[in-house]
Structure formats: C-alpha cells, structure tokens
Specification:
The chain is mainly α and 232 residues long. The chain has helices at residues 2-9, 39-51, 70-75, 95-105, 116-142, 157-177, 191-202, 215-225; strands spanning 31-34, 57-59, 83-85, 91-93. It folds into two domains: 2-105, 3-Layer(aba) Sandwich (Glutaredoxin), CATH 3.40.30.10; 116-231, Glutathione S-transferase Yfyf (Class Pi), Chain A, domain 2. Strands 2-1-3-4 form a four-stranded mixed β-sheet, sandwiched between helices. The longest helix has 27 residues, at 116-142.
Length: 232
Amino acid sequence: MLKDDLTQWGKSPAFPAESGDCGSPREDFLKLYDSPFAPNPRRVRIFLAEKGVSPPVVSVDLGKLEQRSAAFSAVNPLQRTPALELDSGEILTESVAICRYFEELHPEPPLFGRDALERARVEMWQRRVELEFFAAVAFAFRHSHPAMKEMEQPQIAAWAQANKPRAQKFARFLDAELAHRPFIAGDGFTIADITALVAADFAKAARIVFPEELRHFARWRARVASRPSASA
C-alpha cells in the first residue's frame, strides 16, 4: 500500500549520479512517485531509461485510488502521477517538467535538442504531439473505459468518440512528416518521440485503430518501440 511505501522510504536512499554528468548533490535523494500502467508516468520512465538513471520509486496504484489518499494528496494536491520529490522537500509534477529537470542533470544523450534551433524544434513537435495526439488518446480512454468511471466524472461518451478520429487524423499527419525523416523532430530520438510512442501504444486501450496504410508511421513506431527504454 502507498502508506506503507511512504513509511518504508522516509528519506530516500541515495543513488549514484552518472559518471561525468553535471549532477547536483540533491540528485542523490530523489524519490519518484510512479504508476505502472498510466501513460504520463511511462513517459518519465522511458526518459530516465534513455538517460540510464534509476531513482527510488514509490508506486501509486491508481486502480485503488491511492492518488486520492491523504498520504499522496500531501505530495500532489492535484492527485496525479508522476511526481518527483527532492531532498529539500520540494515536489516537481508534470511529466515534461520532470524530464527537463533530469535533462539538466544528465545532458547526454540530449533529448530536448543540442542548440537553440534544435530545442525550439523539439519543443514545437513535443507540444504538437502532446496537444493533438496524446491528449486525444487520453480523452478517448478516460471518457469511455469502465475503469475510469470513478476517476473521470462525468464520463462523456460523445467526447470519447469525438477524440478517436482526432487521434487518427494526427497519425496521418505524422505519417506524412515521417516520410522525410527517421524521428518526429529530426534525425535524433527526442522527448517528442517518447510522447508519441506512449500515445500510440495507449491507443489500444482507448480502442483506437490506426490505418494500415500509414507505413511511415508504422516504420517509426516499430523503430522506437524496439529501443530498450520502451519497455520501461
């Protein structure tokens, strides 16, 4: 249970910074609140796997509504995962914010771009994917799946159905873009690919099917899904 996990961890044990990385002393006392089957925490897990970083983890069971417990509400009053607790007691929430924090501590490999133009390009694609694809899949799932009945009130079936073609439309858009490059934001794997992969995989739970003719999208998906980090 979450309460037991919190008691067990107390002040998190240290974990070593990567050799040569610009680690902060506080990095040795991070604690990541994670939920195994939710898409947003998976984004962070994939990102950390790419960086080779493994902070101590406290599992929050969304199915048992542990995110609504007093213990976790003290961590994040919005009752959402993931959350990153620093040794100072400060809590960072929101998946991309947590990823940016680790990008600063572990700049290699760069997942937000190397220079001003690359960073802007990655940010553009990350936002496009998040707003047009990831969100559409999430809305379709949250407003249709029986498991979300207690968490999404009210569930609006029409909103779920409205978002399914939105996700498929964006997959077609990505297919056209990916005809010209191997990854979403350019020649290298980035946070934009992580967000898109998580959305594409979570589409199955939302009962969204992507057309078979999207061969560039399918090629990209197979390539990023084959990375070891994808199993995180």
